[in-house]
Amino acid sequence: MLEQRSRSYESDDEERGACEWCEYALVITLATILLIGVSALTVFWVIFYREGYGWADDLPEKQFNLHPTLMIGGFVTFSGFSVLLYRICRCFRRIYVKLLHAIFHALAFPCIVIGFLAVFDFHNKKGINNFYSLHSWIGFVAMGLFGLQYAVGFFSFLLLLICSKGTASFRASLVPIHAAFGILTFVLGACACLTGLTEKALFTLGAERYSGLPDEGVVINVIGVTTVAITIIVMYILSRDRFKSQTSDRRISVEL
Ligand code: HEM
């Protein structure tokens, strides 16, 4: 009787384990598709509706097009993957996940710098004021936080390389702060993308045409909705304790 009951508990556990694994596989796959999809759709929008890319005095509009593409690539796709790596690579040693995290941020960094220079130079060429809009203010804060996070992450990684054991507790105390600001930067980046897309739709299509929902308006809205979906799914994945690394907490604290 006792044996029968323990066998039924075991099968319950197995079923729950299988469900959790399916949920994990589903959300990670969905997040991966959306993260790549949003950048692919932005490239499609720019090439199909906005005449593609360029960087020359007589092509300021094409130069502007680098801005949304690189900002979405840097702040959403690369940063999104960088954040999710701690959940995707659960079986890797933490040091390798950290390295991958740093590599994805290192890919985001030039995207954001060039993306910003593209719009800054575009404004100067067209004689438009800098930093006048709500979008540019949100973007400025997001970029500032990204830079700060990058510096703190680099510093703690450097400490890890120089003196792993002696700096462990200091580095461990930085982790929750770095994680909280990382989420904030990601959400602010998404807000900047949404305000930027709205602004661009109104500037280029005009309020009247945009309200008629032309094809281009639909594409812009889909890019925005995908960004919202990514934010929701990334927050969901981060909030699920069960998606965390299988490495024991003790080993994590030693390897930080
Ligand atoms: C996280 C992503 C983004 C950040 C951090 C960001 C940041 C900025 C900043 C700082 C400016 C002001 C540049 C200046 O005044 O010289 C700007 C301008 C602009 N951005 Fe973005 N941007 C982002 C994404 C986007 C996206 C996806 C679009 C969509 C097309 C967009 C559209 C615009 C437009 C139209 C301007 C010129 C008007 C203005 O200054 O508000 N941005 N952006």
Automatic annotation (TrEMBL):
GO terms for molecular function: metal ion binding; oxidoreductase activity. GO terms for cellular component: membrane. It is found in: Membrane. It holds the Pfam family Cytochrom_B561. It is a multi-pass membrane protein. The chain crosses the membrane at residues 21-48, 68-87, 99-120, 140-162, 174-198, 218-238. Its cofactor is heme b. Residues 30-239 form the Cytochrome b561 domain. SMART domains: B561. Keywords: Electron transport, Heme, Iron, Membrane, Metal-binding, Transmembrane, Transmembrane helix, Transport. It comes from the Eukaryota. This is Cytochrome b561 domain-containing protein. It comes from Leptidea sinapis. The lineage of its organism: Eukaryota, Metazoa, Ecdysozoa, Arthropoda, Hexapoda.
